[in-house]
Design a protein that fits this description.
Elements: E1 15-16, E2 28-30, E3 37-42, E4 50-54, H1 55-66
Antiparallel strand pairs: 1-2, 2-3, 3-4
Organism: Streptomyces buecherae
InterPro entries: DUF397 (IPR007278)
Pfam family, one: DUF397
């Protein structure tokens, strides 16, 4: 579930997922360094909206992706 209190991301240092290629496909970026939340945005729309997920929910999602829980 997205956190309704998105932090100020104006100085965020975004990094692209290591699973993203350079082909302009479906890529996400995350901004580390925000206690308790993980800001996420679409790398193709860096000026667009971002979501801030609870850190434990984001960790569970990443673990599920690594385990193949969401298919290919």
């Amino acid at each position: 579930m997205a956190n309704m209190n998105t932090p100020d991301l104006s100085a965020a240092m975004w990094r692209k997922s290591s699973y993203s290629g350079d082909n302009g496909g479906n890529c996400v970026e995350v901004a580390p360094g925000f206690p308790g939340v993980v800001p996420v945005r679409d790398s193709k729309d860096p000026d667009g909206p971002a979501l801030a997920f609870d850190a434990s929910a984001w960790s569970a999602f990443v673990a599920g992706v690594k385990a193949g829980d969401f298919g290919a």
